[in-house]
DNA sequence: CTTGGCAACC
């Protein structure tokens, strides 16, 4: 029986729907992602005057956050002045975080002005926002607040802190916090494993995975993404393939698209390019741009023109304006002396106006964000920055560092 | 019967 039919039947009966009925309906439409039906309930809510009920508004906020965009969420939120409670603030923050809107900190300041005290849901959201920037400065402030209020003991806050420190690259803090946690769950373990894997500590990640299993915590699909990428980073290809099959046979977890991408990365990065392509051909998903880009990058490293050409052409079929695939394909044609195709591709790029998007990086210093892009020398302290950069580059080379892609792509001073 | 299925490949 569908919720809308039950609702219709109820309206024809002697029972009158109340705000609880409405909330249940909204929950149902939120989980089935039914925007149109959710909107109809919204109209009903307005007609029957339930809009003055704060819990109904909160459920509306959640429904729009899941089924629509932020403008619908803010429309409701702005109409709620005077009746909003802690849940309203939290639901709106969750919506901002979900839609990558950078207003979580603004909402935190606003809720403070409205005399609402943050709870563990608020802190979990704010920590999530610290992790995406990422901002260690703000993260430390939230950590202090969590200690002061005792919210640190809350599992979601603890996991949020572990994830925040991981994303900020301070694995020591993440691990310390993890050790102080009496009862780490699958999320805590996975955050740490993924963190170690991402920063290149594959061995440590795999050791953590082993300890986790020994302690009887059941890994899930996210844990395995971490495990597979850990294997990929340190070149443990056969171990990675072993974990990939273990995932299904021992834990009954069916591989998602992410797991398949990890296996492609695992094979391609180590130079087993043919196997990577045959894995792509037999995996249960249509290959997307991510997997072909992975293969393409690996072909560049391992100097494989034949598969590289296939990968680049596949990327361009899915995204005809992909500039880096154009450039790499050009290089592949050139490396095999295929000058006709080089000329053809260069002409095509000029006529379609495909240009390489400039790379950007940024760093947060105190309360300002400093942005840098290629060949941009507009920063007021540029001379000092390049002096330090030059020293660092020398030190790195003396230590034996060879940049990815070789020295020809390594520029100390822009031309 | 109102906020959280938190953590994820390049």
Automatic annotation (TrEMBL):
PANTHER family documented for this protein: PENTATRICOPEPTIDE REPEAT-CONTAINING PROTEIN (PTHR47926), REPEAT-CONTAINING PROTEIN, PUTATIVE-RELATED (PTHR47926:SF420)
GO molecular function: RNA binding
GO biological process: RNA modification
Name the record gives this protein: Pentatricopeptide repeat-containing protein
One matching Pfam family: PPR_2
Alphabetical UniProt keywords: Repeat
InterPro entries listed in its UniProt record: E_motif, PPR_At4g14850-like_plant, PPR_rpt, TPR-like_helical_dom_sf
Domain of life assignment: Eukaryota
Annotated PPR repeat ranges: 185-219
């Amino acid at each position: 029986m569908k919720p809308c039919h039950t609702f219709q039947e109820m309206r024809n009966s002697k029972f009158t729907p109340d705000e609880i009925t409405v909330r249940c309906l909204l929950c149902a439409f939120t989980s089935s992602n039914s925007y149109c039906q959710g909107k109809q309930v919204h109209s009903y809510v307005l007609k029957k005057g339930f809009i003055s009920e704060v819990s109904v508004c909160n459920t509306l906020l959640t429904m729009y956050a899941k089924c629509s965009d932020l403008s619908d969420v803010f429309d409701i939120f702005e109409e709620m002045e005077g009746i909003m409670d802690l849940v309203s603030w939290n639901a709106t923050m969750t919506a901002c975080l979900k839609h990558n809107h950078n207003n979580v900190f603004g909402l935190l300041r606003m809720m403070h002005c409205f005399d609402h005290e943050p709870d563990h849901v608020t802190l979990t959201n704010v920590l999530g926002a610290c992790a995406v920037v990422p901002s260690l400065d703000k993260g430390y402030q939230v950590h202090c607040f969590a200690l002061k209020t005792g919210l640190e003991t809350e599992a979601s806050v603890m996991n949020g802190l572990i994830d925040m420190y991981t994303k900020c690259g301070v694995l020591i803090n993440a691990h310390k916090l993890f050790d102080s946690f009496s009862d780490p769950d699958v999320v805590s373990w996975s955050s740490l494993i993924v963190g170690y894997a991402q920063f290149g500590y594959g061995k440590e990640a795999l050791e953590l995975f082993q300890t986790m299993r020994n302690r009887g915590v059941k890994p899930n699909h996210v844990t395995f993404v971490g495990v597979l990428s850990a294997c990929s980073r340190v070149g443990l290809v056969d171990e990675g393939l072993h974990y990939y099959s273990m995932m299904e046979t021992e834990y009954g977890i069916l591989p998602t698209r992410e797991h398949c991408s990890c296996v492609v990365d695992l094979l391609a990065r180590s130079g087993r390019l043919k196997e990577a392509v045959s894995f792509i051909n037999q995996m249960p998903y249509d290959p997307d741009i991510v997997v072909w880009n992975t293969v393409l990058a690996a072909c560049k490293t391992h100097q494989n023109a034949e598969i590289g050409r296939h990968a680049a052409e596949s990327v361009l079929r899915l995204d005809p304006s992909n500039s880096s695939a154009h450039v790499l394909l050009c290089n592949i044609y050139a490396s095999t002396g295929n000058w006709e195709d080089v000329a053809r591709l260069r002409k095509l790029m000029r006529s379609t106006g495909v240009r390489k998007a400039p790379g950007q990086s940024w760093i947060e210093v105190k309360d300002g964000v400093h942005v840098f892009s290629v060949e941009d020398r507009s920063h007021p302290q540029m001379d000092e920055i390049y002096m330090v950069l030059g020293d660092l580059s020398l030190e790195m080379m003396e230590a034996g560092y060879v940049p990815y892609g070789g020295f020809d792509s390594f520029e100390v001073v822009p031309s």
